[in-house]
UniProtKB/TrEMBL annotation:
Family as reported in the entry's similarity comment: Belongs to the SELO family.
Requisite cofactors: Mg(2+)
GO molecular function: ATP binding; metal ion binding; nucleotidyltransferase activity
Coiled coil: 530-557
Region (Disordered): 632-693
Phylogenetic placement of the source organism: Eukaryota, Metazoa, Chordata, Craniata, Vertebrata
RNA-binding listed as a keyword: no
Keyword Nucleotide-binding: yes
Name of protein: Selenoprotein O
Biased composition range(s): Acidic residues: 653-664
Keywords, sorted A to Z: ATP-binding, Coiled coil, Magnesium, Metal-binding, Nucleotide-binding, Nucleotidyltransferase, Transferase
InterPro entries (alphabetical): SelO
Amino acid sequence: MAYLAPRLGHFRIFNHSVSACRLLGTAGMADMGLALSRSPLERLDFDNVALKKLPLDSSEEPGVRQVNGACFSRVKPQRVTKPRFVAVSLEALALLGLNGEEVMTDPLGPEYLSGSRVMPGSETAAHCYCGHQFGQFAGQLGDGAAIYLGEVKVPPGQDSDLLRENPSGRWEIQVKGAGKTPFSRQADGRKVLRSSIREFLCSEVMFFLGVPTTRAGSVVTSDSRVVRDVYYSGNPRNERCSVVLRIAPTFLRFGSFEIFKQADESTGRQGPSYGRHEIRSQMMDYVIEMFYPEIQRNHPDRVERNVAFFREVMLRTARLVAQWQCVGFCHGVLNTDNMSILGLTLDYGPYGFMDRFDPNFICNASDNSGRYSYQAQPAICRWNLVKLAEALAPELPPDRAEEVVDEYLDLYNGFYLETMRKKLGLLKKDEPEDEILITELLQTMHNTGADFTNTFRSLSQISCPTEGEGEEEEELVRKATELLLQQCASLEELKAANKPTMDTRELAMLLSMAQSNPALFQMISDRATIARQLEILSKLKDLMETSQEELQSKHAEDWSGWITRYRKRLARELEGQSDVRALQEERVRVMDSTNPRVVLRNYIAQNAIEAAENGDFSEVQRVLKVLQKPFSSQPGLESPAWVGRGQTTDQGERDEEEEEEEQQQEAASSSTARTPVPYDSKPPTWANEICVT
């Protein structure tokens, strides 16, 4: 890392009054010089309220252990060797009152933001929580890799919208990947470049897409190594330890309240603070007073306050998952311990933005049952709210909680339809038939394998009907059809996408078992999984009997029919409007500010990761810059500057061991040389090889 020379402007401080400097004396001058040379991170104003208001584990015993009767445990981050920045988010660091460029050039910056050095005022700790993972209560989980550094006071002049979203007046900061905690279980508390870059980039793109999220201020990598089996193939390799700085009003989650759970009927596990009802009350008081102050002020009755709090969490959750669905985002691990108590997108692991539209899209390769598929997300979030309600009882009466949960589906549908109407440019009228039009669009996208992001982005190019259009209408529909056909999958792509994930012999055995031994069948599979495999087989059979020409003709017919219905609906938008041109312009503006031009597709993240693993961090920084304006075209930033596995642009970042590991990786991979594609294009063929677990 090269450091910029100090700015000469600093010396102007001394030029205003030479006599004042003389009065300070030698000691005073030394103190002033020290203040000027301090790291900007040493000037952060910490006020660590969570550790004052919530129970803190009295034990500082190292190693993994059960933490009883506490919400936090003190921990010591572990140093890494030669930490250095991969990238920083200027906008995220500004939340803390930091100038990102100063942080990037600060020699102590990577030390502090990797946990290798502790900032003045910081108190390092790890949060204890539990969770239902894939539907089963897992008992104590907690921050196994994330370490709380403290809470930084909001700097003067922070945007009023941000203050409304974060009324606590503080930002909690964490480092993720800084070593073991009492909650690390069998893991080492470390993260690598792959996971760190993915979390950093997605945290920021979600913010710029307008989706509530935790933020990421920086990624630091190092020369320290950990062993990871990247492909779960039995060929582990050394990877660089890397650390993400995470920022949020709080990282408390649904699972934070599950530490009080009694022994679970299915797993037998119970929360580490079972029976400690006073801590539950303490946590609820803290969360509501700090993050929901209006509810605290408006509801003097404790029960009514708690019901209002749960209703607000429910509303935020419904709105959040509606926003996910509308940008094609799939979280991947929607366990209760990954659900924010503030309605933020939390914990970016095996997430994915959909490429080809598929309601059964599963971004997490280890989610064999499809529990957390794209179309399952709204229902899973409701299920998680039920578990939160159970965790809040008796502070939250179960009958009142049930009434609130019953409101969820209507709220979700309302949020979803509101955004979908904007995506289609339906701004002036809400018609009951709109829901059918949206459903037919998604069905057509599914049937044709259309790209989710690019299809919606293209809709603003479909013109509204005008008076006297006459014979031109057929030509306009044809051109619009050609436009959307460009986003559809080829026959070979659809065949590849519809390969069953289950061997046909295994499927036949399970079908037989479902009839002969239903009890055993339910232990090892489920009817939904089998039905999905049969549907895929049926679709594959049809595709095998179809030619590319026949498929293209069918796709054109499907799109032509939908576009005709869509334009008729657009015509009704114009009824009674005096300035049709202004309405047309508003429609395009709203659509293009709702339908992103670019999202963080897996192949974009993977390309940036491989560049960073080859010592070139510029692609991570470039992708961040592109994603900060996801709705806009940015001349000069249309395509990646780094493409291809095995290329090296900075030999200084690599060593013999790393090159040997890469050769092994190349041998295990079928990747060929890649051709660069624009960030806003459909994914290239090699993207099909990416597997995220």
